[in-house]
Structures are given as structure tokens and as C-alpha cells.
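Design review, sub-item: ligand-bound model
Attendees: FS, YL, KQ
YL presented the inputs for the phosphoric acid mono(formamide)ester complex:
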Amino acid sequence: MKHLLSASDLTRDDAVSLLDTAAELASVTDRAVKKLPTLRGRTVANLFFEDSTRTRLSFEAAAKRLSADVITFTAKGSSVSKGETLKDTALTLEAMGAQVIVLRHHASGAAQRLAQSGWIEASVINAGDGTHEHPTQALLDAYTLRQHLREGAGDLEGLSVVIVGDILHSRVARSNVALLTTLGARVTLVAPPTLVPVGVQTWPCEVSFDLDEALVGADAVMMLRVQTERMTAAYFPSVHEYSRRYGLDSARAARMPDHAVVLHPGPMNRGMEITAEVADGPRALIVDQVANGVSVRMAVLYHVLSSQEGAP
Ligand code: CP
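KQ shared the predicted structure:
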């Protein structure tokens, strides 16, 4: 695997293999010295044109735990303000020795463009491109579901996962529909009609507008952030109305089976798509998702760098 651009590029075997590697690497986190020498001498560049807390920091932690060198670029405070392009920025990082570029960009397709342009030799990992894809988020979500609902092994065959909220603007939803269905889960999307993307009928999932109904029998519910920064119109009448119909509170969560779990990719709008009581409650795996993000990104860096010529 030279690049990781889309969750759709992963076969079931690819995905299970990445999750298995992540599970092996997770044991490093429990050690007093949280380091393996695996990627010593390799350089990972984080190239972030959009804000991030979890993804950027966990890629940085993942690279460091594998003893790679890390260069971090954030667009704010950089020469992007002087008009420097993605191509020239990537060439600059490669000239500093980067063998992997972890790219977050506001433009859908940016990671694919960088990987397939021929501008650079480095591998590209998509850390979120516009409203298109966020494959490492889907991998860490699958890892978390497997850890809690499948005792940490195999695929997700037969699990019922409900993804709720701002599907229209969500790269997390797109990557999760692709990956979770590849792993055998059944996915139902729930959203206001205005936040359902055109063409969703071609996606391998069901669509519902009734959250109460969808939650009955769900093994997991994934609440999505309402992405007001990407909204150019009024997609729902008010925050109160959105929460009433599409928010997850304790009463609604009680409709799910006892074993069912709650995910959120973060950052959360507490009180809008999820109440604090649910976010901090016993079903919530939101902190586990963040912790698992480090192990999963270690596995992705390891697989990508191992595919390169001259890899150790
Ligand atoms: N889930 C996620 O991508 O979070 P960040 O935007 O903080 O990286």
C-alpha cells in the first residue's frame, strides 16, 4: 500500500490486516517506554491546511512511537499566506526528507491530486479532504467497534451501525460507509432530508429520517458533528429543532440494546448532536476512539512505509 487515499481502496483483507497490526502495536502504549525502533531514520511530514486536534496530534504521536522523525506544517503562519501552492509546499517538505506526507486539505480530492500528480515520490496519507474522505478515522472507528463488540478480532460481519447527522458535509460518514460495509456491517444513515447528499441511493447503506426507529436493534450509533463552518444555507430551522429530532440524549439512547455503544469522531457540539450526559456516559467510546487513533495511525504509517523501496 503506497498511499492511503480512500477507505474504498481497502479490501476486507487489507482492512483486517491493518486492524490486526494496530492491535499488536497498541501494546506499546501500555509500556513505560512507549517507543519501537521500527521506523527509525524515516521522516513523516504532517501537512495540515485545515485545523485539527485529534488527527494531527495522533499522527505525530504515532510516528514518534515508531521512532520516525516528524515535520509538522500548519497553513496558519506559513508561506501559504504569500500564495505558495500545495505542489510547492509538498516539494519543500520532500526536500527536507519526508517519505510520507499526511495531508489534511479543505479541497475534496487534494490527497489524490498530490499522490497521482507525479510532483513527489513520497507516500500520501489522506487525513481528511474537504467533504470527501477521512480513511484513518474510519479505521479507528472500525477498530473501536471491533474492540468492544467483537473482542478485538476479525471483521464486523452482521453488526448494525447507525450514522446520524450532517451526512452532507461529512467525510467521516463517507469513509465509514465504505469501510464498515467492506467489513460486513449494515449501515443506516439518519439525517434531516436537507443534510442527505444527492446520489446517496448509490451508497451501500440504508437511509432513514426517523432516529428513534433506527436506534432499535442498533449495535452502535455514530453521532456526527454539525459542520456549521461548511454550511452556506439554513439546513434546519433551529438548533433546538435539530436536537429534538436528531440529537442523542439519554432517553433516546435507552432505545438501543444494552450492549450498544456510542461513537463520535469529535470535535463535539455538546448539547446539539449529543448531550453531555450521553457523551460522558457508560456507552460512550469517544475517548477510546482517540486512544485507538494512535495505534491505527501507527499501523497505517508502518504499512505505507514498508511498501517503499529500501524499507527496513
Ligand atoms: N475527528 C477528527 O478528524 O478530529 P480533528 O479535526 O480534531 O482532527
